[in-house]
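Structure first, sequence second, as always.
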Protein backbone atom coordinates (compact mmCIF):
# COMPACT_ATOMS: atom_id res chain seq x y z
CA UNK A 1 0.00 0.00 0.00
CA UNK A 2 2.87 2.35 0.72
CA UNK A 3 4.19 1.96 -2.81
CA UNK A 4 0.72 2.45 -4.29
CA UNK A 5 0.18 5.64 -2.29
CA UNK A 6 3.57 6.99 -3.36
CA UNK A 7 2.86 6.12 -6.99
CA UNK A 8 -0.48 7.94 -6.86
CA UNK A 9 1.18 10.93 -5.22
CA UNK A 10 -0.72 10.57 -1.94
CA UNK A 11 2.47 9.99 0.07
CA UNK A 12 5.82 11.68 -0.32
CA UNK A 13 8.38 9.51 -2.08
CA UNK A 14 10.97 10.38 0.58
CA UNK A 15 8.77 8.64 3.16
CA UNK A 16 8.53 5.31 1.29
CA UNK A 17 11.77 3.76 2.54
CA UNK A 18 11.15 4.56 6.24
CA UNK A 19 7.57 3.26 5.95
CA UNK A 20 8.71 0.04 4.27
CA UNK A 21 11.39 -0.46 6.92
CA UNK A 22 8.82 0.05 9.69
CA UNK A 23 6.38 -2.37 8.03
CA UNK A 24 9.04 -5.09 7.68
CA UNK A 25 10.23 -4.59 11.27
CA UNK A 26 6.62 -4.72 12.50
CA UNK A 27 5.98 -7.93 10.59
CA UNK A 28 9.06 -9.61 12.04
CA UNK A 29 8.22 -8.48 15.57
CA UNK A 30 4.64 -9.70 15.11
CA UNK A 31 5.82 -13.16 14.10
CA UNK A 32 8.18 -13.30 17.06
CA UNK A 33 5.38 -12.25 19.41
CA UNK A 34 3.07 -14.94 17.99
CA UNK A 35 5.79 -17.54 18.54
CA UNK A 36 6.22 -16.33 22.12
CA UNK A 37 2.46 -16.47 22.77
CA UNK A 38 2.25 -20.07 21.58
CA UNK A 39 5.43 -21.14 23.40
CA UNK A 40 7.34 -21.79 20.17
CA UNK A 41 11.00 -21.07 19.51
CA UNK A 42 11.29 -17.38 18.60
CA UNK A 43 13.54 -18.12 15.63
CA UNK A 44 12.69 -21.13 13.52
CA UNK A 45 12.82 -22.20 9.91
CA UNK A 46 9.71 -23.27 8.07
CA UNK A 47 9.73 -26.90 7.04
CA UNK A 48 6.45 -26.86 5.14
CA UNK A 49 6.05 -25.56 1.62
CA UNK A 50 2.97 -23.39 1.56
CA UNK A 51 1.48 -23.03 -1.88
CA UNK A 52 -1.66 -23.77 -3.79
CA UNK A 53 -4.97 -22.12 -4.54
CA UNK A 54 -5.82 -21.47 -0.89
CA UNK A 55 -2.50 -19.73 -0.22
CA UNK A 56 -2.67 -17.57 -3.34
CA UNK A 57 -6.32 -16.58 -2.83
CA UNK A 58 -5.53 -15.58 0.77
CA UNK A 59 -2.57 -13.50 -0.42
CA UNK A 60 -4.70 -11.80 -3.08
CA UNK A 61 -7.44 -11.04 -0.53
CA UNK A 62 -4.97 -9.62 1.99
CA UNK A 63 -3.20 -7.59 -0.67
CA UNK A 64 -6.19 -6.04 -2.39
CA UNK A 65 -8.65 -5.81 0.51
CA UNK A 66 -7.51 -2.29 1.39
CA UNK A 67 -8.92 -0.80 -1.80
CA UNK A 68 -12.61 -1.46 -1.13
Amino acid sequence: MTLALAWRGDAGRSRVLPFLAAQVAGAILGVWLAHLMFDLPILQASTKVRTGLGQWSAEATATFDWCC
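Margin note: The two ends are 13 Å apart (CA to CA).
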